[in-house]
């Protein structure tokens, strides 16, 4: 919403199960949604992606917006993809910034290259990476318009039969957290990951893991940071026992401040760390934790 | 079951990658080009389904002449044959155009099941499977970490931020897979030798009835206006732990107001 406001007046679209709009309306108003289009119910909720794209496409035809912005989650991108095909329109994914003229900034190739792109056919359909800007409140009182959504037969081909939540604790969501503490192969085993969790909890952050740590079974896959995992861009990223391979950097390179603990002084992670400690994480981390407690 | 696996050749993600200065497209000529990693998992999954249920596995690639190397590499894992869509006009195609071409090629292949990677390591656009499903009017089960085939019925566990969703559909369908789904096999020597003799059909845009001005830089629905190397992060302070490393670390965090 914060990015969308730079383009003009903003309407939010909520698509989900019954009650979804009620759940989000206050927050959407706080960040400047002037209207809310609400599509709820089984036609939306029971099928994968396709019926949501149909709903958005219908709305685009009705209200002719200047642009459509979505979150750069897998589902957000998938809706954008179907929408682009339906409207024979261009799309840009993973933008971190959108200018008033619709030019999007994308950070590509493991964070090494900054690209400015424009949709040249149709309206800008752009997906925005989480955490790319700090949301700024701009209170509005949105009126809710209910959308009559009719999924087509083709939309109903893939049915969602179950949604299963796995170990969602009290920690912030990884891709949105402002502090992330990640562990790598250097953590040694699954049990030792408690050390990473403890530091994350002391700092109020999320826990991440390198692919080597995930592949070795130390930590679940949904916490993987990097090219084949999550892209994070927190204020603070703490890398514990992570060497800093290019594919890992791909997911954390745009963090504001990077701190690393690694016993190998030559580890590439030190090339991008604002503060690096060459040392054994099993000594450094418990001492740091004690120090944090002391300073409270 | 007639299975088509989508395989894209990409520049190696472990090395330096860039766009070329002339037309802002990916610099592929100088890059070390490899099979998109997720696609190896797609090939493995296709081979497993063939082994369990019978059928045929076809590799489909859209890419320049040198993508032929990746096609041979893919075939050496075990698929039966390949289709290579190759046309100079395709250079610089956006995702919308790519999906148009791949959908046209799939139209000639009569697949029960199309399997692809959940994303490519270069574009990472993550849209191809749903775009193809939209164009072909078939089901899409994307982001699978587990896939079960029971006759014509497909059930997948779709990885989400919160956990997973169980999604079902009947064939024909497009399925995209993450690297959590299996462990891709290495090509055997026999496989490598056999791959040399497997049929690879090359198709041009004209063969597919797609016009050149709908694809490539000419038909692109989005354009790169400019690009720049991101300034490399410079290393900051590095200390060696001599007993107070943890304390020094927290002193830094406190100075930066994180503690
Ligand atoms: C296509 C592709 C995609 C990939 N995607 C990802 C991805 O998404 N995310 C990702 O992370 N990787 C990814 N990788 C893998 C990546 O190349 C590296 O293999 C991986 O990041 C290494 O993880 P690591 O740093 O934990 O392990 P290692 O490289 O083994 O590093 C372990 C580090 O721990 C240090 N260490 C050991 N013991 C201690 C101790 N007691 N105290 C302090 N330090 C210690 C060591 O010095 C070493 O530097 C990908 C690879 C490929 C080919
Ligand atoms: C850095 C970068 C950024 C880009 N950003 C955009 C953008 O914002 N908008 C846009 O429209 N285009 C973009 N592109 C172009 C886009 O990547 C290509 O058009 C590409 O062919 C399709 O997208 P993808 O590979 O990212 O697809 P994804 O949807 O990420 O790929 C999923 C799977 O589709 C299959 N697949 C994809 N392409 C092919 C192929 N050529 N042959 C066979 N199988 C294939 C593979 O199995 C792959 O694993 C970008 C390209 C780059 C390099």
TrEMBL record, chain B:
Keywords, sorted A to Z: Electron transport, Transport
Signal peptide range: none
MF terms (GO), sorted A to Z: electron transfer activity
Superkingdom per UniProt: Bacteria
Ranges where the Electron transfer flavoprotein alpha/beta-subunit N-terminal domain occurs: 23-212
Required co-factors: AMP; FAD
Similarity comment: Belongs to the ETF beta-subunit/FixA family.
Subunit structure as annotated in this protein's UniProt entry: Heterodimer of an alpha and a beta subunit.
Protein name per the record: Electron transfer flavoprotein subunit beta
Lineage: Bacteria, Bacillati, Actinomycetota, Actinomycetes, Micromonosporales
